[in-house]
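G., the chain you wanted modeled:
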Amino acid sequence: MTASDTALGTRRQSVLDRLTADRGSFAPAHAMIADWDPRAVELFHDNYMHVMTGDGPLTPKFRELLLIAVDAATYYHDGTRVHIHDALAKGATEDEVFQAIKVAALAGGMHVLLAGAEQLRVVLEQRGADS
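Predicted structure as tokens:
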């Protein structure tokens, strides 16, 4: 292992620790990308925190519902589950989450609805198991 490898590993862990501290967890893809380019993950996270926690007219819950719709429409299942969990934690109802998925399906079609509903089912099962 070179000094460069050690520095990269330290930076990677620092970035992932920050994601965990700020968001509670991170997606497996964040860790994989941080293996190659921790700065890219850091820049993404900075932008994410700016948009999701900064000032603006949209409530935190509504921002999460928007991300559910976007992630569902692009078939990003990990993101869909993360933002379903976060939306519910911020006060969204199951009906509001399902409505966000249905809105996404207007643009993306029936498969978006099917895939999004499956992610909602997974999160609700996980939450039930955690209770």
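Residues 1-54 form one domain.

Shout if anything looks off.
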